[in-house]
Specification:
There is one protein chain. With 524 residues, this protein is an alpha+beta fold. It has two domains: 305 residues, Hypothetical protein af1432 (Orthogonal Bundle); 189 residues, 2-Layer Sandwich (Beta-Lactamase). It has 23 helices and seven strands. Strands 3-2-6-5-4 form a five-stranded antiparallel sheet, with helices on both faces. A two-stranded parallel sheet has the order 1-7. The radius of gyration is 27 Å and the shape is elongated. This is HDOD domain-containing protein. Pfam families: HDOD (PF08668).
Length: 524
């Protein structure tokens, strides 16, 4: 049973869709619904009539159908019926959906968010279709993949069209927490759930409706060999990739890493290389240019073209207009200013990024760099616990009784990076941890006898006042140590949510060591 907030959201969308004084986008939404609902049962004559109701779309479909990309034989086409017979039923249906979305993405009367979500839909569909064809020119099911991947973002179109202020709020919250949690917080349900609920009422074909289901962990842990699994996985994968393409929060420098991290999540179900994805994105950008010409839209006014060209060229994305800019709600506060509830939310959201990074590596067959895993952990721990430094020590390859700070962030890390400063014979607080493999929290480095067992290097970047030592073990063997520090008289203050996440993350890292040892995954 949907929550009260979810029912309110759905009621508002259904009311907007049913009103007679519909906007152009609403009419497009309704036509897309009708096309999708009869994706596999509609006749050629019905499709011809449905598209023909809109003179503008009719003209543009015929114009695009006469291009070499759709009609290499060059047979003149002057009607929708001729287009269907010459180009093919599925291609014309998908062309009509693409043109409607492309036109909406460039329509100046629509909001920034409407234009971007429409472009996201068409780009996701095109990318999924292209990835399904590559690398062996597989055509089976490619047209279905396009419809499914396009409609997977359908809920975003509805939310950004009819509830745009709350849509902006949800996107802002998504900078503080997982995106699904952010949308549930604002709307009571996720964008996929919104789209699935609305499209369910249109008697959507079972195959497409299945592709609007949430992607479960089980789908990611086994190869997607069945066509229905491939459609679901590809729809989600292409949507995530295009979301990165469109995300102004992802800098040009971070784009490749974000892409690799996303692809690693799918490595067990649908392994695909970044090079192949970039090749597909180039093709999508070319197809978008063709579509833009068909609807009479300049590439510079098409969000899809602008964002794809920027990513492919390594350029920054254009700034959103002031009213559409989002900012984190909690990250504007310091951790000490947060309420207990806000602190818990911030901890969940911050550690979630590290958890996702490790989970992507726990898929059998995954290949990854340990640096990326430990960097995400150190960044999350430092932010969530308001630390000044986080250092992760691992055993030296040629002298494994010593540990060096290989990963981390902060001034102290920069001072001691790569130095083998932890060893059993040092007789300090760290040698005690090495021997006992127990967590150690030093609240005050200047208290009594504690001062005598604090190593000098801990003060290399200024007087450290408090620090915590967290060992990571596998089969009772200490493999690495996570250290967090603060200075200027501050004390480390960890809440229950922080401790819970740190236990979970260390358990996952331990599991990762085991999978590396058994060669189920490859980490370097």
């Amino acid at each position: 049973m949907p929550s009260r907030l979810a029912r309110k959201t759905l009621a508002e969308i259904e009311k907007a869709l049913s009103e007679e004084r519909t906007t152009a986008i609403t009419e497009i939404i309704q036509l897309i619904q009708q096309l999708a609902a009869k994706a596999f049962s509609i006749s050629i004559s019905e499709l011809s009539l449905m598209i023909g109701r809109d003179p503008t779309i009719t003209e543009k479909v015929i114009s695009a159908a006469n291009t070499l990309g759709y009609n290499p034989s060059g047979v003149p086409i002057s009607t929708i019926s001729e287009a269907l017979h010459t180009v093919g039923f599925e291609k014309i249906r998908n062309l009509a959906i693409s043109l409607m979305l492309a036109e909406n993405s460039g329509e100046g009367r629509n909001t920034y968010e409407q234009r971007n979500t429409a472009a996201l839909c068409v780009c996701s569909g095109m990318l999924a279709e292209e990835l399904h064809r590559l690398p062996d020119e597989n055509e089976e099911g490619s047209e279905v993949v396009f419809v499914s991947a396009s409609l997977r973002n359908y809920g975003r179109i509805l939310l950004s069209t009819f509830l745009v202020d709350n849509y902006r709020l949800a996107r802002s919250h998504a900078l503080d927490m997982r995106e699904d949690e952010a949308f549930k917080h604002v709307f009571g349900l996720t964008p996929i759930e919104v789209g699935r609920h609305i499209l369910q009422q249109t008697n959507l074909p079972k195959g497409i409706l299945q592709s609007l289901s949430p992607l479960e962990d089980a789908h990611l842990k086994r190869p997607a060999t069945r066509l229905e699994d491939q459609i679901l996985v590809l729809s989600e994968l292409s949507g995530r990739v295009c979301s990165i393409v469109f995300d102004e929060q992802v800098s040009p420098q971070d784009f490749s890493q974000s892409l690799e991290q996303t692809l690693s999540v799918f490595s067990g179900a649908y392994p695909i290389s970044p090079e192949l994805v970039n090749e597909a994105l180039i093709t999508v950008e070319q197809k978008l240019t063709t579509l833009n010409r068909a609807v009479g839209l300049s590439d510079s006014l098409s969000p899809g073209s602008v964002n794809l060209q920027a990513r492919l060229n390594g350029d920054p994305l254009p700034e959103p207009p002031p009213f559409a800019r989002i900012s984190a709600q909690l990250k504007q506060k310091s951790v000490s200013e947060m309420t207990e509830s806000e602190r818990a939310t911030f901890s969940n959201a911050t550690f979630a990024q590290a958890v996702e990074s490790i989970e992507a590596c726990l898929v059998p067959g995954a290949k990854f760099k340990l640096e990326q895993v430990f960097s995400s952990v150190s960044t999350a721990f430092r932010e969530a616990a308001d630390l000044e430094n986080c250092l992760i020590f691992v055993r030296e390859e040629f002298d494994d009784h010593c540990l060096s700070a290989r990963y981390g962030n902060g001034d102290l890390y920069s001072k001691v990076k790569n130095r083998p400063i932890l060893a059993p014979e040092k007789k300090d607080i760290f040698s005690i941890c090495l021997a006992r493999k127990e967590d150690v929290l030093i609240e005050d480095t200047n208290v009594g006898k504690i001062r005598s067992i604090i190593p000098d290097w801990i003060h290399s970047a200024g007087e450290t006042s408090s620090f915590i030592i967290l060992p990571v073990t596998y089969k009772h063997e200490l493999k690495s140590i996570i250290v967090g520090t603060v200075s200027h008289g501050r004390k480390i203050d960890l809440k229950q949510e922080d401790l819970r996440h740190l236990r979970s993350i260390r358990s996952m890292i331990s599991e990762l060591y085991g999978m590396i040892e058994s060669q189920n995954v490859t980490g370097k």
